[in-house]
Design a protein that fits this description.
55% helix; 13 helices; single chain; 5 strands
Length: 330
Amino acid sequence: MRIVSGIQPTGNLHLGNYLGAIIRWVRMQDEAECLIFLADLHAITVPGNPAQLRANVREMAAALIACGIDPDRTILFNQARVPAHPELAWILGCTARIGWLNRMTQFKEKSGKNREGSSVGLYTYPVLQAADVLLYQATHVPVGEDQKQHIELMRDIAAKFNADTSVELFTLPEPLIGKDAARIMSLRDGSAKMSKSDSSDMSRINLTDDSDLIAQKVRKAKTDAEPIPETAEGLADRPEATNLIAIYAALSGLQPSDILTQFAGKGFGSFKPALADLLVETLRPVRARLGQWRQDPTEIDRILTSGSQRAAAMAAPTLEGAYKALGLPR
């Protein structure tokens, strides 16, 4: 079982990243061969600041290690250090069909009303995603339900390349959908995912937030005036209440039903302090380790360089096989 997953280095990690993806990656280190990459090539599909991007790559690597990603067990690297990614992306771009990309819903969401003004990279980034995974003969890719379409595209591209060249080169990866993965929503809007791009910092808990700020954000988190119900049915049509209960459950390891039983009949004025305390104690050691890693950027660079060398060596046979299958020299 080989797992490949990536994350864009676009700023501070937040609670949604931690509970929705990173905790899964940490656990998977005991179950499979893992490659985790910082998707800096994906980050340049929209305008950005070069110095900030370099800083973000280091910051993200430090945060992942602080959260429990072990560079000795997981190949941790940044995408741009492995040229095989864009090389294979070009080859796969000659295999993928325009009709397939036109059906990708995330481009429509990301481009918004500026579709014609968006970069070609933003349009074709699912092909680079396919290269990110297919290079390493990954068997599984951990995703949420909203990203399953991207795995289907990877499989379509891989299957067409194999069929067109009569070479069984690429492994068709399976989506690894975490049924128990927490889907953490905004503290200001329970119908929207917690996001780094939200203009309000009060909408998210950043892993770098200090204890007082975490408590303040939880205290000001949007809720309703109704008391906490005894059963999950009582949370229907109450997205903000549902979100806070879900966060508590993900942090504590308890079932939502147990939490509802414990706090039934109480208002969120009683629940929020308990949630804040749990958040503070959970994130305190992560923040401490992150502070330590931030003091050693040279070691972060060494880890990324080493991880990239290991990734490049692993990717080389697949890229060579793709060139050979197409009759291209190497």
